[in-house]
Design a protein that fits this description.
Oligomer: single chain
Distance between the termini: 40 Å
Amino acid sequence: MKTSTVYIGLGSNLGDRVANLREAVQRLSAIITIEKASQLYVAAPLGYVRDDAFINAVVSGKTTLKPLDLLEMMQAIEAAMGRRPVQYGPRPIDLDILFYDAVQIETRKLTIPHPRLAQRAFVLKPLAEIAPNLMHPVHYYTVSQLLQDAEDANQVQIYA
């Protein structure tokens, strides 16, 4: 079976956010072999961290699952952890496939690489921590280069 390298973004802004992220990583480890995990990050303008601010992280690992199968299993994890089908509302856990090898997919259910990744410092900063030289297969910039261009990069800080 072919193994692929995946990068998954995690976020939580409801309940015990750190515990939610830990639980999500533990659940993910049942479906992928996690190789690296970033520190936790929070978008904190002027250093003020609101209680409902998203805490984010990125993990990388290996999987034999096909992209849509991985997505379905990640959505099952989200549902098991109490996520409701709300697109932009508060949620205990949010899991996104950022990259799957250098694969490019665009379907109604799934787009890889994640379509808004290049504009999201809260994803780019933890991703750059674990894979700074990873090349974006559409933009042809490394994650570090994309982070340099992110307008809000200075607002994303390590969560203490």
